[in-house]
Design brief:
- By secondary structure, this protein is mainly alpha-helical.
- It has a single domain, classed as Orthogonal Bundle (MetI-like fold), CATH 1.10.3720.
- It is built from 13 helices and no strands.
- α3 packs parallel to α6.
- The chain is globular.
- The C terminus is likely disordered.
Length: 295
């Protein structure tokens, strides 16, 4: 009887493993094939996109690297790329400077108003940023009129501040959950050695929370880098970010049937996110698994 049950258990486990492998392979193919197709399409000429006998999955007959140079130069994708790099770097810096002390205090200290602040940040997780774009725009426009300046719109620093503030709830939630998992003995030892609260946080706790911080950086980098609606609403002219510039490029090149240049712009947007994910994927899974633990 035990042998029969063991055989059934082994067959069930084998079927389960086969199902998991098939699901993972299907998921990988569904991701890899479109990405590879975009890379191939970015190196094709216009003649390889138009016609009845054209095979969309065929390799390029000739590698047209000029698509990238045209996208960078004439389509100004290089300027938009620089704007996105500056905005994303500023937003991540502001976010970490604010979120690290806030999440550390919420996780490790008891003080008046802690429950109210925690509830406020938790409520912020359910706010869809796209629904408050118009109020943000009206508020910044009113500030321009009030102070008689043009600082609050079409400004990369202001856009970075908006990005950072809208992603504070998620960041604080993830970091505070990770800080709660760290033993208090490290802080006690640091206090005995004469370290203050701030020095303990910087020298001891923040380095220990590196996996969670890397996770936060990756998730927010992807959000800031690919964000379109807020940037489209608040930014104009030469300060446009890469997603807004890509949308303009796609509209222009699609009308002109320059599909290779259009796909080259897509590749320019994808490469930084792919490289960053490949570099930190192990830390990402570690930070997500530990960040969800509670004492």
């Amino acid at each position: 009887m035990k042998g029969i049950n063991k055989t059934k258990s082994n067959s069930t486990n084998s079927l389960y493993k086969i199902f998991i492998y098939i699901a993972l392979i299907t998921l990988a193919v569904s991701i890899i094939v479109p990405v590879a197709w975009v890379f191939m399409a970015s190196l094709k000429s216009n003649a390889e996109f138009v016609g009845q006998d054209v095979n969309p999955f065929a390799f390029p007959k000739k590698l047209i690297w000029e698509n990238f140079s045209i996208a960078f130069g004439k389509a100004k994708m290089g300027e938009y790329l620089l704007n996105s790099v500056m905005v994303t770097t500023l937003a991540l810096s502001i976010l970490l400077v604010v979120a690290l002390p806030a999440s550390y205090c919420l996780a490790r200290f008891d003080f008046k108003g802690k429950k109210f602040l925690s509830a406020g940040f938790m409520a912020g997780l359910f706010v869809n940023v796209n629904y408050i774009v118009v109020p943000i725009f009206l508020m910044l426009s009113s500030a321009n009129r009030m102070f008689d300046v043009r600082f609050f719109l079409n400004n990369r620093l202001v856009l970075a501040i908006v990005y950072a503030s809208t992603h504070l709830p998620f960041t604080i939630y993830l970091l505070s959950g990770y800080f709660k998992t760290l033993p208090k003995s490290y802080e006690e030892a640091a206090l005995i050695d004469g370290c203050g609260y701030f020095k303990t946080m910087i020298k001891i706790m923040v380095p220990m929370a590196r996996p969670s911080i890397i996770t936060v950086i990756l998730f927010n980098f992807l959000a800031f880098w690919n964000e379109y609606i807020i940037a489209f609403t608040l930014m104009t002219s030469k300060n446009k970010t890469l997603p807004v510039g890509l949308q303009n490029l796609m509209a222009v090149e699609k009308t002109a049937t320059n599909y290779g240049i259009m796909y080259a712009g897509l590749v320019i947007v994808m490469i930084p996110t792919l490289v960053l994910y490949i570099l930190v994927q192990k830390k990402l899974t570690q930070g997500m698994s530990l960040g969800g633990l509670k004492d």
